[in-house]
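Course assignment 3, question 2. Fill in each field.
Student: A.L.
Task: Predict the tertiary structure for the chain below.
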Amino acid sequence: MENLSNTGDGALAREFVQFAIERGVLRFGQFTTKAGRESPYFFNAGLFNDGASLGVLAQFYARALQASGIEFDVIFGPAYKGIVLGAALAAELARRGMNRPFAYNRKEAKDHGEGGILVGAPLAGRVLIVDDVMSAGTAVRESMALIRAAGAVPHAVLIALDRQEKATDAGGGELPYSAVQYARSELGLRVCAVATLAHVLQFLRPRQEFAPHLAAVSAYRSRYGVECTLPPHSG
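Answer field:
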């Protein structure tokens, strides 16, 4: 199954990295990841927490998505962060003349009113899942199950940042591929990222004020990074 995608041009990605740093969404220091790794950087899309920054974020998502050439029928935002991100993307795409239906899920099923676990437009056709990052791929697999149960096709994933690092298994063991690679090769999804860790390093490299962080992030990439998250193009 063809699952190639575009992470957008380098200029768009570096522009996004700068925006994320200025908003305090991409931070440098000492952080512990969900996988238990000591990371010298942290990306928290929840800090795009006002109307202006959320609107700009949606523009980055839309520009990367349109550059990727990915086609889809419905946007799906997995609870909780994905709800806001998917809604913002839907509004921005409509502003650009591409009006698409939007749906999201609840964590707990509702037993009154319209009931059920899904909210919004019916899931049908090719579904685009929108989230901030992809770590272990758990959220994507859960979304795929919901989408398939509704009779639709999980088709692609759009994320803000590809950390380009080795995924972990259920026991915390290191795997030789990233969550994005797993989504492409094993789940058959197309994946588009606005930016990658490689773009973060490209942004930091010429800026002297970030020199200590560049060294730390480079060392982290050497320890946990995967060779490439984009498969070779064919055809």
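Instructor remarks: Helices lie at 10-22, 51-68, 81-95, 138-149, 179-185, 197-204, 211-224. The chain has seven helices and ten strands.
Grade: pending
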